[in-house]
Amino acid sequence: MASPIVVMGVSGSGKSTVGAALAQRLRVPFADADDFHPAANIEKMKAGHPLDDDDRHPWLEAIGRWLEEHCGDGGVMSCSALKRRYRDQLREHCAGTEFLHLSGTPEVIGARQASRPGHFMPASLLASQFDTLEPLEQDEAGVVIDVGRSIDSIVDTYISLTGGEPR
């Protein structure tokens, strides 16, 4: 029985790329939380306005339903999951959900974000993401890995730290 994994972090940390690579390595389904945003959320972010909790709640519920569908079978979801209460909301759908927090400095992630022209999340919102970020707490199942590593190294490290399967 495998629990789903949420690859979390601020915009530009590599969640989608690492999540897809991890899912492929574990041979489980992958989904990107960006695909679950309603059009109004995307338009708000494109206009340079950060989402508030009211905007995020239905989006997180949709992600939670995907996690629930993959609870026990495994799956990987890329999702910012910046606040503890957002992660708690996701765990309400599948209590065993684990988190892989891709951590990096604003400078490193800002440089990565600058190389993604056309993404709906403008670089101007990066500071608000770091302001919102609440790192994983001791009682949350998950690991933190620095984004300065290669994708393969991040995936290898995650698998090594978790024994190759979600706990």
Automatic annotation (TrEMBL):
GO terms for molecular function: ATP binding; gluconokinase activity. It comes from Mycolicibacterium cosmeticum. Its EC number is 2.7.1.12. Coiled coil: none annotated. InterPro entries: P-loop_NTPase, Shikimate/glucono_kinase, Therm_gnt_kin. GO terms for biological process: D-gluconate metabolic process. Pfam families: SKI (PF01202). Signal peptide: none annotated. It comes from the Bacteria. It catalyses: D-gluconate + ATP = 6-phospho-D-gluconate + ADP + H(+). Keywords: ATP-binding, Gluconate utilization, Kinase, Nucleotide-binding, Transferase. This is Gluconokinase. Pathway: Carbohydrate acid metabolism. Belongs to the gluconokinase GntK/GntV family. One of its GO terms (cellular component) is cytoplasm.
